[in-house]
Amino acid sequence: MVKPKILAFAGSTRSDSFNKKLVKIAASGAKDAGADVTVIDLRDFTMPLYDGDLEQKEGLPSNARKLKDLMISHHGFLISSPEYNSSISGVLKNTIDWTSRPTEGEPPLACFQGKVAGLMSASPGALGGLRGLVHVRSILGNIGVLVTPHQVAISKAHEAFDADGALKDKKQEDQVKKVGIDVAHLLAKLVS
Ligand code: FNR
Question: Which residues of the chain have pLDDT under 70?
Answer without folding.
Answer: none
